[in-house]
Amino acid sequence: MHDYELLAALTYSYAGPEELRTTCDLINLLFVIDEISDKLDGEKARELGDNVLKVLGGEYIEGFVLSKMVEDFRLRFIKKAAPKCQERFLASWATYLSAVSQEADLRVKGDILGIEPYIDIRRENSAARVCFGLFEYVHGIDLPDEVYNHPIFQAIYWGGVDLVGILNDLYSYSVERSRGLESNNFLTVVMKEKGLTVQQAADFTGKVIMDRVIEFQENEELLPSFGEELDEAAHKYIFSVSQWYIGSLIWSFETTRYFGAKNQDVKKNLVVDVQEFNHEEEMA
Length: 284
Hints:
15 helices, mainly alpha, 74% helix
């Protein structure tokens, strides 16, 4: 309905057939978790997360609605993923699911975070880090810690994570507002902290995005050499980060998930009437 496989094709455009199937499985799984968790409180979201982690670790849970889906993905992933890739991937899942439960707690309480605390939790609950966790799997590489943990490489990594989350907040604001879920959105956070209108918050968000893009490009130029073989692997990973945030941007205007039947009009005119936008009507 929302072309999640297209998102995989755009964000992992370099993947082979088997690897693309795995990325499709992951993205479909993440959207299912997102839809389910939006209706849960913090305790139920933590229970959901605990079960997902158990299945990812190899423990099949009879009666758990997502067991089969998670297990199918896990078996595809571990066939090829290198040990360090698997370790990082599972760690990203743990922080993602923890952030999802925190988000549920905040939603139930009606709390809206400040900009910096929000960015911290958005880096995790956007699932960008989980999606980035497949880069090494798809490319068949295994980055050593000396590359992955280098400060410049990490700055590039986190810049990409922020771009995915903040871009998504900009495009999803209208539909989240129509569903009463806008408290977990950068525009809402900015409006509250800075006393801005929706348009002013969107303009502010656009500047933040462009600043992140410039920083990303500058940091890419600053990355030192680790030797020919490792440089090739590092640049494949960095290329994949840029493909992800650019691919997700393109997909946001191709899918009906955020703008309904008006998605092509929004793409052409770059205007969203937030006050009149009714997602349920657009999707009908």
